[in-house]
Predict the structure of AraC-like DNA-binding protein.
Amino acid sequence: MYAERTSRLAGAVVWSKGPVGEGGAARAVLPDGCMDLLWDGERLLVAGPDTGPYLPEGPARRWAGVRFRPGTAPALLGVPAHELLDRRAELADLWPAARVRELCDRTAAADDPARALEDIALDRALAAGPPDPWLHRLVRRLDQGAPVAEAAAELGLGARTLHRRSLGAFGYGPKTLARILRLRRALALARAGVPYAQTAIRAGYADQPHLAREVRRLAGVPLGELLGDR
């Protein structure tokens, strides 16, 4: 069972998930432009940005997490996003071991591990200060379908500067971020029952075949299979 709620940290989501039931199968995690702070019942981990589907491995577990707004996690966690691209890393590999042990003990003892993770995130955000406003502006414009060059011009950034800063904040360049945000728009429309052809146009694809190709590239399966044929 998966559940989520809006976090007290601006733009973040707090979530929890129980182990897959008997006879069930783990679902792939799709690229979403975000990074997560995770608790698997024993360890604190960081889920880096994904460029393709991620299928959880190992035994079934209860998970809790904080999913950060796109681009904001690196400043809070102290690691550039591109160093965690398509990775799940133990927090102890990124922060001092003694500090991580203390946080693990606190999270393990908490009645609500997800809230304990949220408290960790809030403490880090307080220490880091407000995120650079360009991050939210870039994500907002790309999510509105603006071309990368147009978004860069509005931010007053050259193409190389935007690409370099995007690697640190998102793990990949702005064009990949735009593709992932477009996929999120398309899935939201399709899950709401919008026909695939209309979904493609409204989400910013050239046509339905273009949508189908991008879904396969980023999600690894056809759109109908991804949505269970609705």
About this structure: Strands lie at 2-6, 13-17, 36-39, 44-47, 63-67, 88-90. The chain has ten helices and six strands.
